[in-house]
Every structure is written in C-alpha cells, then in structure tokens.
Amino acid sequence: MARDLLASTAEDSLALRVLDILRRRRLLAVGTFAALLAATISFAIYLPDLYRGQALVLIERPVDETIVRSAESAPGELESRLHIIKQEILSRDRLLALITRFNLYPKQLKSGSIDDALNQMRSDVEVNPSGPEQVSGKTKTVSFTLNYTGDSAKTVADVTNAIAAFYVQQNDSIRSQSAISTSQFLGEQLAQAK
C-alpha cells in the first residue's frame, strides 16, 4: 500500500514529512540551488555598470513674504517656474548641446538616430520636487532633486552638475526679470502717489 506523504496522520507532522522529502531528494535540491545560483551570478556579472548622479537644488526666498508680497510669492508660481525651466532643459536644442558637449550616447549617434539619443536622455534625466507638507496636503516646493543615470561616473557627475547649473542660471534670470518688472511697477506707483 502506497503511503500518501501529504495525508495527515497523527504520528507525523508536516515539518517532519517535509524534512523527510528533502533528505531523500537532497541531491536534486542542491543541484537546483547551485544551477540557480550560477545563473544569477552570471547574469549579475554580465550587466553593465550604471551610475546615478544626484544634485539637490534649494530654492531660497530672500525677502520675507509678510513685508513684500510680490508676484513670485503667488501660490503655485514657484512650481510653474520650475516646470518651465524643466521644459527648457528637456528641449531638443538643450539636450543636443549636452549630448555633443559630453559625447553622450555614441551608439545611437553612430546609427544616425538622434531622436533615439534624445529620448534616452529624457528618460535618464529625472526631476523630483520635494518640500514640507502643507496643511492642505499639497507639497510646497522648497527644493528639488535632479538625477541623471549613465554608464560613466565622471560623465554622469559632469552632466548632473551642468543641468543643475542651468537650473540655477535660468531661475536667477527669471527672478531678475521679475524683480525688474516689480521695481518698475513700484516706481510707477510711487510716481502716481506723488
């Protein structure tokens, strides 16, 4: 009479039955484990090295909002300004300048597929706004992290720094234009008040 290994009996517990099965099939279990381990190690060695550069850009508010309520302090203005700068960075001309400056994606460029290189760069650049939670549940951006992923550590660091520097430069340019228009508006208001 064949004994059913999975049938519940009073003298055998499930753990004892599993140990009995493993003891009798140990060569098969060890062989399977060794084959899976060898395949996993081979796959891990075959994978290319990838590096990720990260820059944290802090947004300052130099003027106290209770003293001067400028157009910059309007709700959502900072997020929209960052979105505009992000769109400028991910524009075709800006990405092509970065690709040629740092010699990025040579395989795609050799095959003549500039659009593939541009799409790859857009997927490798990541911008994540962050900031403290507000009472309303929305996040007010006071900083953002900029990530770039590539296959060379030095190139990844250089590209990340170049993109972060462009963010800072564009932000300063937008803020100075806003300051000039605010100054002109205040000058007009002062002239009218006199």
How would you characterize the overall build of this protein?
The protein is mainly α and 194 residues long. It has seven helices and three strands; from the N terminus they run ααβααααββα. It has helices spanning 14-24, 26-46, 77-89, 92-102, 106-110, 114-124, 153-193, and strands at 51-58, 125-130, 143-150. Helix 3 packs across helix 7 and helix 4 (92-102) packs across helix 6. The model is unreliable at 63-68 (pLDDT under 50).
Question: Brief overview, please?
Answer:
The protein has 194 residues and is mainly alpha-helical. It is 58% helix and 11% strand.
Keywords:
3 strands, 194 residues, mainly alpha, single chain, 11% strand, 58% helix, 7 helices
pLDDT < 50 runs, ≥5 residues: 63-68
Strand content: 5-15%
Helix/strand-derived category reads mainly alpha
Overall pLDDT level? 80
- Helix proportion of residues, in percent? 55-70%
Order of helices and strands: HHEHHHHEEH
* Count of helical regions: 7
Break the fold down into its secondary structure elements and pairings.
Layout: H1 14-24, H2 26-46, E1 51-58, H3 77-89, H4 92-102, H5 106-110, H6 114-124, E2 125-130, E3 143-150, H7 153-193
Antiparallel strand pairs: 1-3, 2-3
Helix pairs in contact: 3-7, 4-6
